[in-house]
Amino acid sequence: MRNFFGIFFSRYILSAIVAWAVAQAIKVVLTLAMTKKFDKSRVLGSGGMPSSHSSMSVALLTTIGFRVGFDSAVFAIAFCFACVVMYDAAGVRRSTGKNAQTLNLLLDVLNGEGMISDEERLKELVGHTPLQVAAGAILGIFIGFLFGTVNVPA
């Protein structure tokens, strides 16, 4: 059981969690600065600046690179994982958000004309622009560098 709980103290897992949390915190602060309102959906929500998915996967990748080696099989796996995550965030998930936006407009028109009753709106903010993905990756590199190079006593 000791090894199972040790996962929560793994520098690899912690780097990913911290990168995700910092990215989410930045989203909350940016939304607050732009709208002058606290939006609780930004605390755990996907989409927006920076990409927390990219930040998380790149922090893990970078930590592995510094701790295990940039030429290791584990780094290669983490690299492929991070590439898939970032491609998905800027590709598939971004397209899903655009489709949801279009469908929501259609629902608004149909509802306004009395053709349908109120329908639940689709979530539009699910993907990222390439800039948001890049910002998340840069944040991940920074946090991964810290977790990968700073030695703390165990």
Write the layout of secondary structure elements.
Blueprint: H1 2-6, H2 11-35, H3 41-44, H4 52-67, H5 73-90, H6 92-112, H7 130-149
Helix pairs in contact: 2-4, 2-7, 4-5, 4-7, 5-6
> How would a textbook summarize the main sheet?
none
Q: Residue ranges: pLDDT <50 for 5 or more in a row? A: none
What is the radius of gyration?
A: 19 Å
Q: Between the first and last Cα atoms, what is the distance in angstroms?
A: 18 Å
> What best-fitting shape do the alpha-carbon axes yield?
elongated
Count of discrete structural domains: 1
Helix-strand topology string: HHHHHHH
Mean pLDDT: 82
Briefly characterize the structure.
With 154 residues, the chain is mostly helical.
Walk me through what this model shows:
This protein has helices at residues 2-6, 11-35, 41-44, 52-67, 73-90, 92-112, 130-149. The protein has 154 residues and is mainly alpha-helical. The protein has one domain (2-91, 127-149). α4 (52-67) packs antiparallel against α5 and α5 (73-90) runs parallel beside α6. The radius of gyration is 19 Å and the shape is elongated. The relative contact order is 0.19. The mean pLDDT is 82.
Short key terms for the protein model shown above:
7 helices, 154 residues, mainly alpha
